[in-house]
Amino acid sequence: MSEITPMPTLPVPQATMWDQYAVAAIVFVVFCFAILAAWRIFREYRAWQTGENLQQRSWYESMEAKRDDSQGLRDLKWQQFYQQIQDHQARRDRDNNEVLGKLISRIDMLTETLTVHDRKSAERADRIENVANGVVRKRRAA
């Protein structure tokens, strides 16, 4: 035979059950406040980080401006230094050209002197030869 068991009747939850709901609600509220506090801390951290990034960017920009100024000054000094070297080299070249010009004019003068001397020596040698030829002819003729 089959025994029919009556359907169990569900009683109204006991007081401990309601206490558990309250504890769960309190835990949920605490969890929500923790998330809210974490969100606020995160927002404050992001705001602080943004401020630090702006300060760092401005510091980098000032350092870049200072570096550009020093680079420009250094470039100017190097240009002046190279200009001094070029001026010195140009002055030496002018002096060398002047000395070479004087040397060339001196050589030209000496060459002209030697040419005149050679021409006069050749004329003198011709005269001496003519005189010698004349003397030899006179002796041979005599």
List the helices and strands and how they pair.
Elements: H1 15-141
TL;DR of this structure?
This protein is about 90% helix and about 0% strand. With about 140 residues, it is an all-alpha fold.
Q: Can you give keywords for this protein?
A:
142 residues; mainly alpha; 1 helix
Rg for CA atoms: 59 Å
How are helices and strands ordered from N to C? H
Number of helices: 1
Q: Main β-sheet: number of strands, strand sense, barrel status? A: none
What's the end-to-end separation, in Å?
A: 199 Å
**Which class do the helix and strand fractions yield?**
mainly alpha
Number of strands: 0
Q: What's the shape?
A: rod-shaped
Helix content: over 70%
Q: Average the pLDDT over all residues and give the rounded result.
A: 89
Low-confidence spans: pLDDT under 50, at least 5 residues? none
Amount of beta strand: under 5%
Your description of this structure?
It is built from one helix and no strands. By secondary structure, the chain is mostly helical. The longest helix has 127 residues, at 15-141. The radius of gyration is 59 Å and the shape is rod-shaped. The model has no long low-confidence stretch (mean pLDDT 89).
